[in-house]
Design a protein that fits this description.
9 helices, 5-stranded mixed beta sheet, 285 residues, alpha+beta, Glutaredoxin, Arc Repressor Mutant, subunit A
Length: 285
C-alpha cells in the first residue's frame, strides 16, 4: 500500500504490527481439544511435549550430607596487633574514601597488596583486612574470584598474551609460543629463575593493537615474535623501558599534541618514573 494515501486511509496506523491479522487457533475459538489437535495436524504442526501420568513420575529426594567445620573463620584483625607498612595503609585508606562503603574498596586494596608483594600473600591480605576493618576471608574470597589476582607466588614480571578472536586471527598463538620459548617455559607458567610468568588471557580489550600483550600491567602492541624475545631479555635485566616503541602509554592521544602520550597515564602512580624523559629542544636549557 502506497504511503502517499491520505492519512485517514492508512490501515497500518491502527495495527502497525498486523497482530490482528493472525487467525486464532481452534482452541481459542472455543473448539474441543480433539478439534484443536486435528486442526493442528492439518496445519502441518505437531504439539510439543508428552503427557505422562502422575503415578509414573519418579520423585527424587535431594541427598543431604553433614560436614564438619574446619574451624572458626578468622575474625577482623586488630589494627594494633598487625604491623602494616605505612605506604600500604595510606594507599588503602585513600581507596576507601572513594566509596560509600568500605567493603567496596576490596579490589583496589588487593591491588595495592599485590603490587607491593608480587602476589596476594596471606600476610598482605591480613594487613589490608586490618586497615579496612573486614575479615581476611572476605578479601580472599574477592581475590579468588578475579583472574588477575594471584594467590600464590608467580614470576616477578607478568606477561599476559591476549588470545581472543582479533589477536588470534593475527597470530596470537604463535606470539604466546614465542614468549614462552624466550622465557624457557613449556606451555604456560613461571620460568625456572622466577623472573617471568607467561600465560594467555581471553581478552584484554585492545583489538586495535592485535596481536598484543599486557606486560607488567601495561599494554603493548602490535607485537611480533621477535618482540617477544626482546621483551623477555629486557625483563630479565629488570629494565623499566620495555619495548618503548610498542608501548600504548607513549602513543599520542587523539586530538592531543603530536608526539606526546596521554599525560593522564604518565601521572598515574603505576607509571611514574617509567616513561623516558623528553629530549630538550635545541636552544633551550
Amino acid at each position: 500500500m502506497s504511503p502517499l494515501l491520505p492519512k485517514g486511509k492508512r490501515p497500518w496506523t491502527a495495527d502497525p504490527g498486523h497482530i490482528h491479522d493472525v487467525p486464532e487457533p481452534p482452541w481459542v475459538r472455543g473448539g474441543s481439544e480433539g478439534e484443536a489437535e486435528g486442526a493442528t495436524r492439518e496445519m502441518g504442526q505437531e504439539k510439543v511435549g508428552v503427557k505422562i501420568p502422575a503415578e509414573e513420575i519418579e520423585v527424587v529426594q535431594a541427598s543431604t550430607e553433614e560436614r564438619e567445620a574446619h574451624g572458626e573463620p578468622a575474625p577482623i584483625p586488630e589494627p594494633s596487633e598487625v604491623e602494616v607498612p605505612r605506604a600500604l595503609a595510606q594507599e588503602i585508606r585513600r581507596a576507601m574514601k572513594r566509596y560509600p562503603r568500605k567493603r567496596s574498596a576490596a579490589i583496589p586494596a588487593l591491588w595495592a597488596v599485590q603490587r607491593r608483594y608480587g602476589w596476594c600473600t596471606p600476610e598482605g591480605i591480613e594487613q589490608a583486612a586490618a586497615v579496612m576493618g573486614v575479615t581476611p576471608g572476605y578479601l580472599e574470597s574477592v581475590a579468588s574470584f578475579y583472574d588477575l589476582f594471584r594467590l600464590e607466588p608467580e614470576g616477578e614480571h607478568q606477561v599476559l598474551v591476549c588470545t581472543n578472536i582479533s589477536c588470534w586471527l593475527r597470530g596470537a598463538d604463535r606470539l604466546l609460543e614465542a614468549f614462552a620459548e624466550a622465557a624457557g617455559i613449556e606451555g604456560q607458567g613461571s620460568s625456572e629463575d622466577g623472573k617471568v610468568f607467561v600465560r594467555n588471557f581471553e581478552c584484554l580489550g585492545a583489538c586495535d593493537l592485535a596481536p598484543m600483550a599486557s606486560i607488567d600491567e601495561r599494554y603493548y602492541g602490535p607485537l611480533t615474535e621477535d618482540d617477544a624475545g626482546t621483551a623477555i631479555e629486557q625483563l630479565r635485566k629488570n629494565s623499566k623501558n620495555v619495548l618503548p616503541e610498542k608501548r600504548l602509554q607513549d602513543r599520542p592521544a587523539a586530538g592531543g599534541p603530536r608526539g606526546g602520550g596521554d599525560k593522564r597515564l604518565s601521572r598515574h602512580a603505576i607509571n611514574k618514573g617509567t616513561r623516558p624523559k623528553p629530549k630538550a629542544k635545541k636552544g633551550k636549557k
